[in-house]
Amino acid sequence: MAPRPLKLVVFDTTDTPRAARERRRAAGASPDGRAMGSPGLSPIWRAGTLLHRLAFAADASLGATSWSEALEWAAAKSRELGRPIASLQVWGHGGWGSMAIGATELDRAALRPGSALAASIDAFKAALAGPESLFWLRCCSAFGHTTGQQFAEALAVRLGCRVAGHTHIIGVVQSGTHSLRPGEKAAWDADEGVKKSGGRAIAALTSALDAPNTVSCLALGLPEDY
């Protein structure tokens, strides 16, 4: 019998309340879809991983300080247990076309051959169970705007698996939840979750119960039809 594939969760452990206060003091306007004014969510994300473990929705979890640490840990956990990866949820902060862990960014540039993350991405890809494995970026607005659509399409091709993300700023509710597979084009509207002024995108919209494809922050997995 083939081993059961792993469900993994990683969160950004650097978003402490102190770091958030310093970020707020330095922050200006955010034209790239990022949320402003986070209270420091690492403690909440850490508690969320416990919920997933207790509900058997995650086999292992990690608080990471960088994307290389996150991806290399997932690949190493797969090798250690002799089980491929069915899903990896990553919790942190994002904006149109990118997601951060600590000071590192996963974006289209990071997906290119020779990038600083190329080897880590390759190791993670090799550990996936197959094209139906899920890589879910549970962060604000990474799939929003045309920049986010292009990122989603490139990410699916680079990993060779299903990828998921959001078009809105997320919190207790998480709106604009979409996924696609390698070779698919983003089917959601590029303006979904985008606030405009004078025809120009100026910010991401906050999630709402009546917004498209909304899930709860307590959702343990991605709805199949999303």
Q: Please tally the β strands and state the result.
A: 13
Average pLDDT, rounded to a whole number, is 93
Number of domains: 1
- Could you estimate the helical fraction of the residues in percent? 25-40%
Biggest sheet character: 6 strands, mixed
Based on the coordinates given, report the CATH architecture. Answer: 3-Layer(aba) Sandwich
Task: Describe the overall structure.
- This protein is of the alpha/beta class.
- The protein has one domain: Rossmann fold.
- Helix content is 28%, strand content 25%.
- The chain contains 5 helices and 13 strands.
- The strands form 4 sheets. Strands 2-1-3-7-8-10 form a 6-stranded mixed β-sheet, sandwiched between helices. A 3-stranded antiparallel β-sheet has the order 4-5-6.
- β5 and β6 form a beta hairpin.
- The two termini are 30 Å apart.
- The mean pLDDT is 93.
